[in-house]
Amino acid sequence: MTGTTSLEERIAHLSRAVDDLSDVVARQAADIDRLTRRVTMLLEREAAREADGGSLALGDDRPPHW
Fold first, then answer.
1. What is the value of pTM for the model shown?
2. How far apart are CA 2 and CA 32, in angstroms?
């Protein structure tokens, strides 16, 4: 194998790795965007609930029939 061929192979492998990593980053960015929208929606929903005077139901409160 010549030096040029070896370099071409290494470049091809590195290009593939960069493309694969780019795909991963794009998927992660989409996931982060989706999760950010969901958190924003939940924060807005909770702010509206607090503005309406809604009470916070805690898991350690006893039910009213106790």
1. 0.64
2. 45
CA dihedral (60, 64, 65, 66) in degrees, to 10, reads 50
**Residue range 27-48, pLDDT digits in tens:** 999 999 999 999 999 999 999 9
C-alpha–C-alpha distance, residues 13 and 7, integer Å: 10
Residues of the chain with pLDDT > 90, as a percent, come to: 70
Q: Token pair of 9, please?
A: 């192979």
Backbone φ and ψ of 60, nearest 5°:
-95, 5
Tokens representing 46 are 């909770």
Question: Which amino acid, one-letter code, is at 33?
Answer: D
Distance CA 11, CA 61 (A): 63
CA distance 48 to 37: 16
